[in-house]
Amino acid sequence: MNALEKLFIRIVQRVNINLRELEFDAKPYVWDLIPKNQMTKFYAFYGISPDHPLNLQFKHSGLAGSYFLGQCRVSNSLLYKCDVRGDELKKKGDRFQFKNFNIPISKDEEIVIEDSAFVKTLIHNFSHDPETLEKFFIKDTISTHYANIHGSPSDGCFLGPFSTVDLTTMRDCIIGTFSYVQAGEISHLNIEPGTVWVRSPGAFNFLYRYPIEKLKDYIYFKAGIKPQGILMDFVENRKEDFQRVFDVVNIEPSFDVPATASLDRYAVVRPSTRIGENVLVSQRAYIENSYLGKGANAQENCYIINSRLAGNNVNAHGAKIIEADVGENVFVGFNSFLHGQPENRLSIGKESIIMPHTIIDIAEPLAIPAGHIVWGLVTNQDDLEAHSISIAELSKIKTRFTKGNMFFEGSGENFVSAFQDRIHHILEANGAYFNSHDNSGQGHAQKNQNMSFNTIQPYPRGEYEGLFPTIMIQP
Amino acid sequence: MNALEKLFIRIVQRVNINLRELEFDAKPYVWDLIPKNQMTKFYAFYGISPDHPLNLQFKHSGLAGSYFLGQCRVSNSLLYKCDVRGDELKKKGDRFQFKNFNIPISKDEEIVIEDSAFVKTLIHNFSHDPETLEKFFIKDTISTHYANIHGSPSDGCFLGPFSTVDLTTMRDCIIGTFSYVQAGEISHLNIEPGTVWVRSPGAFNFLYRYPIEKLKDYIYFKAGIKPQGILMDFVENRKEDFQRVFDVVNIEPSFDVPATASLDRYAVVRPSTRIGENVLVSQRAYIENSYLGKGANAQENCYIINSRLAGNNVNAHGAKIIEADVGENVFVGFNSFLHGQPENRLSIGKESIIMPHTIIDIAEPLAIPAGHIVWGLVTNQDDLEAHSISIAELSKIKTRFTKGNMFFEGSGENFVSAFQDRIHHILEANGAYFNSHDNSGQGHAQKNQNMSFNTIQPYPRGEYEGLFPTIMIQP
What is the CATH number of domain B3-210+452-473? Predict the structure, then answer.
């Protein structure tokens, strides 16, 4: 057994120890998911820009195909084709307001990944946990295909494929396949597959559960197999396009990118695509024959195909939009799968909110009216009515409200305004409101333009094959 | 405001953030407990021996009067007259058995104290948490007078005076005055003052609650005052004896210490005391006119006065024994206060177990029979009957059992054997079974003999008055 296998065994053991109360054994789920013989094949790469603090420390880890930006330490971990962002790190001297606490940031924040293994996971660093503002830690954690660890410190957890943990600190939890959790702080929970849970303690609680038999067509995962279903097939079918992007050193876009927009060098863009002012297309996004209006973004692992986005659209990590016409200010949440057809297009009216982990998969045309919230599984007009509510109506809810498999309690107004505030923040952070006249409102779309990319390689053979030497990269 | 005050404010804020769900404000409790103007007065000291790994790193911290041994990092913290032990650290290459997990230790364990403040707290490092075997962490935690953090990683907690957390990992918890918790893993709990709780999930649960009005005579603490009551008066009255021990550079015991025993240089020993073979007397223990038989120990903050201990006695951290005759193999738990009188002595039969945080305070002679377990508040024979059970009888309990304020459920046999195994381990670790013929069974009593002591000092004035410069001490 070489060092990489020993390391993997050790990580699995650590996760199992943390999850012992939930009687979970990660090994049969993940042993074949990180292709150990391929860990030598892919270089890792990192971005350098004047706007991001540079401090990378890698120790006894495999990093195949992973991308890093900003201040990050990785030790005793295996990362396989992950995106680790470091572009929203808090800085020494900043202050963070949390309710009535005004908290000074006492040193530059860093991302610290220890004793963990991830497959094709997105790690986004803007964590909101007031308990750990200087250290965004992920330890003793395993995460599988296309999961999002979004500003969520994690200790001793397992994340199923296409799951998302958003602004939630987790300890000793299992997050089921395709589940979305935004709950502040959770501990010792086993979240069933297909759960969509948004909670703000004392304010509101939104809970939806997918009909599990229907979800299985889209994504299914059990011990001993690879994740499978329509979602996996969809991304696997486009893998080769990404291979080309990684195989060449320099790449030029095939069309004009406005000076205020940015198109990542590791995105795939196919004809005939146009992007407007202030647009952000992140690494590992996939755009084909689409138009992205001013201030729209396509975040990591987004797919936008044969679609038209009117402008100021947030397409959160992993959102997929096919054959759709999307109005202004529409938000499409994490890992949503919005699948129209050439003859049966989907249209979404302006300012609507598509909840994270929504699946819309239609064989007839479907129009979502403006100003609506949509969740869950929608295949036709009847489903839409059972899985949506107008924002105006939801804002009136003061106690509780149920519809199908969805349960809501608390203040609808707070829920709506929390979402809207956040959408506004995301657009702002991404540079959607950038004004080139006075240079105000800079965000990722503008700052990411000055990026240079560098690559690092693992040991090519021997006991440490597939692991990287100890590497520290500082200014 | 100088750097030390700023640091203290920052620590208090961090604790409050962690405890926000429990709506706790630590500031009024602790602001006057660390005498900031005295932080410059006391040196800190550390022991060096061939048997303990040396790696001390102190950063932006005040350490007044604190003692360190072994591998330890302290940053952004205030320690006031604490004992931090590092003599049971796990070593790289060791293996740790936890139920069916056999876990390799992948690097030398270290004690890591961050963003915390402690007053006269004992930190003992043999932690049992299989999730964090290489790092015994204490962060965002405030602990007050004579608390014990005993092998218990802690994140975001507040410990009241004379409380003990034993082999328990805590997150965001308040441990009330004089409460004892041994519960494996706890989170977001507010433990009421005077709680004695011993739980092994799936095996047993022991719970006793002190009558709070009676406990107040012994120890009472609220915001804005110093801890007060008989226990505080007892230790304060003997403070000057310790002052002498710290004021001189070299000190020689006034009697013969057997070659197999150790008497710490920072213990107080008054006439006419005798100690037997294999005895361990730790720093900050106080022995007066007493006999400690072969293999007995007096751990940190123990007081043994006018008493006779037959041998192989464990007197856990903070135990106090006055005017008592204690049989062989008797265990006296943490912070217990066993107070006989010259004319009304207390006797404890062999192999009895005095539970942690037991108060026996008598005005008539009292004899505890051999082989009994005693808990709670005992002032006379009637109390004793209401607060004890024979070990034989307890071993027969299979479901549940209550007596007064004590509730037990689970297997009495498991409970008894867990205690007995642990007592055996403690005696072993302390060197009680050392055999000088074949040099087998070495423990702290033997290893601590080769210790040299060194002192370090804080900034004497200026902005950083009372804080120590950054110090790293390695071989």
Answer: 2.160.10.10
CATH superfamily of A238-396+412-447: Hexapeptide repeat proteins (2.160.10.10)
Give the integer Cα–Cα distance in Å for A192 and A67: 30
**Mutant choice from B21, B131, B187 vs A, greatest count of A C-beta within 10 A:** B131
**How sure is the predictor about A282, in pLDDT bands with cuts at 50, 70 and 90?**
very high
Contacts of A134 in chain B (CB under 8 A): none
- Print pLDDT tens along chain B (475 aa): 899 999 999 999 999 999 999 999 999 999 988 888 889 888 898 888 877 888 899 999 999 999 999 899 999 999 999 999 998 999 999 999 998 999 999 889 999 999 999 999 999 999 999 999 999 999 999 999 999 999 999 999 999 999 999 999 999 999 999 999 999 999 999 999 999 999 998 899 999 999 999 999 999 999 999 999 999 999 999 999 998 888 877 777 778 899 999 999 899 999 999 999 999 999 999 999 999 999 999 999 999 999 999 999 999 999 999 999 999 999 999 999 999 999 999 999 999 999 999 999 999 999 999 999 999 999 999 999 999 999 999 999 999 999 999 999 999 999 999 999 999 999 999 999 999 999 999 999 998 887 778 888 888 888 999 999 888 888 7
In chain A, how many H helices and how many E strands?
9, 49
- Nearest Cα of chain B lies from the Cα of A155 at a distance, in angstroms, of 10
Q: Do the Cβ atoms of B217 and B201 come closer than 8 Å?
A: no
Q: What is the 3-state composition of chain B as percent helix, strand, coil, each rounded to the nearest 5?
A: 20, 35, 50
Average pLDDT, integer, range A15-33: 94
CB spacing of B17 vs A140 below 8 angstroms? no
The C-alpha of A218 sits at a distance from chain B's nearest C-alpha, in angstroms, of: 35
How does DSSP classify residue A10? H
Distance from CA of B228 to the nearest CA of A (A): 31
Contact between B81 and B66 under an 8 Å Cβ cutoff? The reply is: yes
Which tokens belong to B455?
Answer: 């002192």
Q: Where are the domains of chain B?
A: 3-210+452-473, 238-447
Whether residue B131 and residue A103 make contact (CB cut-off 8 A), yes or no, is no
Is pTM, for the whole model, over 0.90?
A: no
Q: Which residues of A touch B156 (CB under 8 A)?
A: 131
B238-447 has the same fold as B3-210+452-473? yes
- Could you tell me how many residues make up chain B? 475
Residue type present at position B91: K
Domain spanning A3-226+453-473: CATH 1.10.8.50: no
**In the block, residue with structure tokens 């599988």:** A144
The side-by-side arrangement of strands in the sheet containing A452-456 is A400-403, A406-410, A204-209, A195-200, A180-182, A164-166, A148-150, A122-124, A83-84, A67-69, A44-48, A452-456
Q: Tell me if the bond preceding B388 is cis, omega within 30° of 0.
A: no
Tell me which chain B residues have a C-beta less than 8 angstroms from the C-beta of A187. Answer: 171, 187-188
φ, ψ of residue A325 in degrees (nearest 5): -120, 115
Give the whole-angstrom CA distance, residue B308 versus residue B287. Answer: 11
Q: Which two tokens stand for residue B59?
A: 């950063």
- Assigned token pair, B259: 């070659």
Nearest CB neighbour to B17, from listed A13, A130, A201: A130
User: Which class is B238-447 in CATH?
Assistant: mainly beta
Among candidates A17, A21, A103 on the partner chain, residue whose Cβ is nearest the Cβ of B101? A17
Label residues B224-250 b or e (16+ Cβ within 10 Å = b). Answer: eeebbbebbebbeeeeeebeebeeeee
Alpha carbon B124 to its chain's center:
7
Name residue B288's beta-bridge partners. B270, B305
CA-closest candidate to residue A135, choices A113, A109, A105: A109
Mean pLDDT to the nearest integer, A410-417: 97
